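New to this. Help decode both lines:
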Amino acid sequence: MRSRRAVRGLTVQAIAGSHVVLLGFDLDLRLCPGLLGFAIHRTDHVEDEAYWLEGLKTFAETDPKRPAGTQYATNQHPIQGFTWSDFTAKPGYRYTYRIEALTGTPSALTTFRRVSVEVKTECEATGDHDVFFNRGAAASQEFARRFGQMASLESAPPDDPRWAWLSRGAEEAMLAFVARATDRHFALRVSAYEFRLPSLARALDAARLRGVDVQVLYDANANPPDTAGAVFPRDVNRTTARAAGIESLVRDRVTRSDVTRPPIAHHKFIVLVRDEQPEAVLTGSTNFSLGGVFGQANVVHIVEMRSVAKSYLECWHLIAANPDHQMLRTELTRRNALQVDLSVGAPLPLRRAGTRAVFSPQRDRAALDGYARLAAHADGALFMTFAFGMNEEFRQAYRSGKAALRYALLDKLIASGTAAARRQAAEAEMVALRRMPANRFAVGNRLSTNRFDRWVQEKLTGLNQHVQYIHTKFMLIDPLGRDPIVITGSANFSEASTTANDENMLVIRGNARVADIYVGEYMRLWNHYAFREWAADRGGAVQDSFRHLDVADQWWREYFRDSARSRQRKYFSGAPR
């Protein structure tokens, strides 16, 4: 839900997802001299609470010098920025946000403009799409404040409160989806790359005992063994099935057996079938593993549309037969019917609103090229995540794309597999891209010290080896515009994910509710990692000095130049571009 209001030169737009409310501000430039920041007051109409939201920075003059990690009310230490996100919102709640522009001095702040907006957050499970983002940020101040430096998660019991906090509804959504299959009238069809989430395996066993027809496919390719001789993920997938007593329900998925390094069976979906008719499908970027649910950033996306569920069930049956790879590519390409128009000047590869699924492997790069064309022609703003580096097609979109604001969220600046001889040039290219005024890049990182800005030290969960931070694979095309497009699923935006691996993507056009949820979560993660990457670049010497709020009347000026911050102010406040 979106709500926008302007009063006497101050404009506020609220974009409410499920767990995030994103606030964008704009103030007439003539009113900015003397602006000390914005205070944000929230009224919770469900729990009947009202209070000032809090931030971490303080004025030097009125700094109470409290312990690291302390937060301060924004009516005393305001926000010096033109966007702010409330990460404490709850799904299905009604809130009123009152934004006050402050002037005066730190010890005598005065409100000179005030605007209130009311929104209702989206329920995660409503309508045709149920969207559940995990926390994806164990290396965070909130985690450290809540749980301190506790023992390793890997050995934690199931009732350890850290699991639920990190899951943020993702694991619960998976288990609830399986629980919908109540008796012999139901079937569950699972396709997995990693099948090593014990709670899911046990839930499938419980479904079997209820009479549900359960069948699981998982990746069993003969990948190169590690130093201990184990083949990932085949061996751990088999161990998980054996531990849950469901060996009879699973079968190996071998993409190709005639090559040394076969493409991977990278799906993560479950189809719910009732009386032989597909009803819904659970998909997304989340591997069925502890690291997928509780570690790196991921999304569980459930589609309550029979037509979409049917396409996933058909894909499951196709790959269950372990077909010849070339035949599978040809058949999936035919079924996808992408309607991709790659002619010169064609702005969109989709001609109508709705939801459709795209499956790989495909015979050619049409889907990937179509996504790249969408990125290049995005009007307003582009948002993308990259777990394994940015392909050239998308570097070109960030180099010369149409969007005035282009966000990229990366697990690493360049892909881990980049050849040593290419690394320096590849890094220089990415650095040049991120310096362009339209581009805003953030790369996964954490605060490894408790000295910087009096923030507390952060630690990772230890549940992930290769992708520590950003594992989601989604693209948002002008999500706040009149015709938003969300592309999300298991496939990285790469040639291998298009023409080689088992993959699936949802393409959702014209659904503002889904777009609002995704853009709020995107900015939650982007802001989280943008600051941590900036802090990591500064080194220990700079970390000794606390950066107080500005009183020299300079902080707001960057938001009115030809800069990424100025473009951000305009986009999120809904100001004319």
